[in-house]
TrEMBL record:
Lineage: Bacteria, Pseudomonadati, Bacteroidota, Cytophagia, Cytophagales
Annotated signal sequence range: none
This protein's name: ABC transporter ATP-binding protein
Cross-referenced InterPro entries: AAA+_ATPase, ABC_transporter-like_ATP-bd, ABC_transpr_LolD-like, P-loop_NTPase
Biological source species: Mariniradius saccharolyticus AK6
Domain of life assignment: Bacteria
GO CC list: plasma membrane
Transmembrane intervals: none
ABC transporter domain span: 3-209
Alphabetical list of SMART domains matching this protein: AAA
Any Pfam family: ABC_tran
Keywords: ATP-binding, Nucleotide-binding
One MF term in the entry's GO annotations: ATP hydrolysis activity
Length: 209
């Protein structure tokens, strides 16, 4: 089991706790978490990523409980095993595309031999030496995806990956994420309010109803 989240509860205000449905995903399986803005979708993603500790419950990745790890140990585990695609491209604008991916390798303690192949798979191999500042919005989103995938994570987490994209690019990004997850046998979780994504992933949870 790649991702297992059980009995998770969380609150920012103790008077307004919310429960997170139990989640179990194996290699290559996909889950869509739908909900309106403010429903707690991003909070769920941050808990699954080990960025936010729940008040109760456990999250484990491939048998390792995230919250038994601390500090740099957790950071390194996350870098090796979890690819996170944030709502806004989580890349450093003054650097080149290649340098951004090299940083991801460095923080995970992994080699850099997949950079070229990942960029080519995502259709931006020709942008390897380009500064992020010079990329279009769609290209920057693909670099953000490449950064999440370069370390061959066991789990891919995507937060509103289509939010700022037109219909054509939104469909392309969802297809890229699904294709990459299937190709590398990674579990995939997408959280979104975007109803356009509903038809692409049949396994769904709705939160904040």
């Amino acid at each position: 089991m790649i991702l297992k989240a059980e009995n998770i509860s969380f609150y920012y205000d103790a008077n307004q706790p919310f429960q997170i449905p139990d989640i179990r995903l194996d290699r290559g399986q996909q889950l869509l978490i739908l909900g309106r803005s403010g429903s707690g979708k991003t909070t769920i993603l941050h808990i699954l990523a080990g960025l936010l500790q729940p008040k109760a419950g456990e999250v484990s990745i491939d048998g390792t409980s995230l919250y038994t790890l601390k500090g740099t140990q957790l950071d390194k585990f996350r870098g090796k095993n979890i690819g996170i695609i944030f709502q806004k491209p989580h890349i450093l604008a003054p650097l080149t595309v290649e340098e951004n991916l090299m940083l991801a390798n460095y923080f995970a303690g992994k080699k850099t031999d997949r950079i070229t192949s990942v960029l080519q798979e995502l259709g931006i191999g020709h942008k390897k030496k380009s500064l992020v500042n010079n990329l279009s919005e769609g290209e920057a989103q693909r670099v953000s995806i490449a950064r999440a995938l370069v370390n061959e994570p066991k789990l891919i987490l995507a937060d509103e990956p289509t939010a700022s994209l037109d219909d054509q690019n939104a469909e392309a990004v969802v297809k890229l994420l699904k294709d990459q997850a299937e190709k590398h046998q990674a579990a995939l979780v997408i959280v979104t309010h975007d109803q356009r994504v509903k038809n692409h992933i049949s396994n769904q949870i709705t939160v904040g109803i």
